[in-house]
Amino acid sequence: MVTDTHNVKAATLMEALPWIKSAFGKTVVIKYGGAAMLEPELRNQVADDIVLMKLVGVNPVVVHGGGPEVTSLLDALGHDIEFIKGRRVTSDDALDVVRMALSGKVNKELVNAINYHGRYAVGISGEDGGLVSGIPFSEEHGRTGSVSKIDTTVVDTLIADGFIPVISTVSTGEDKRPLNINADEVAGELAVALGADKCIYLTDVDGLYRDLEDKSSLVSQLTTEQAQEFVDHPEISGGMIPKIAGCINAVEGGVRRAHILNGMVSHAVLLEVYTDSGIGTMITNE
Among candidates 43, 1, 3, 81, which has minimal Cα distance to 269? Predict the structure, then answer.
């Protein structure tokens, strides 16, 4: 017997059909971070979304952060924790801990979650294959820097071989020494270099609000110029600024759309990519 529930399920699948067709063969960069990474159930749901996208013809590329894990491990090992203008100070000794936390722990947890479904994910870092090169911000920031060059050869190879690249953003300085680069920045730059169709930032808020105290003021769509106004707004939190900047950089570099979504929402990526209304905030030149 066909019930209303069956009809709803069928309607949902049919709603996804044109979006599956339009996204087929496209590359989507997903920046994964925030509190959603700390919850195993939510992490597994994100992994489910990524595998489903792969199976219906999208080429997902995952770039991940891991600030809470880095801070926790630095604290446990007795290292000083310092930020200058919202950017982590990374001493030479602390850099080894950053590499352990990001490339050794967080990266492998994500790879494991995706590979629960089969032989899909390969974990790499910005150091591998010369993927990400950068320069330090300043002497005071130590081994924390920004992107100077992206070489997509290793990512292109993995995609061509049918794999999902999962990337930690410990990278290589122009002095050939390791460098800690913000994952929000790397995601935007990588999306441009890959010619991605979309760049999606998963965080722990629903998107951008015109009034931070009014949850009904969520902005569903912005141009890059309007998004820049949020970057310049004094009430925008420091952690959100690199995400907005990454979206702006991606779109101005040729990525069709960039999105900020709440990774705490079940299957947020699928809701954005494969439904008519989507969720979160979209930044575009349109």
Answer: 43
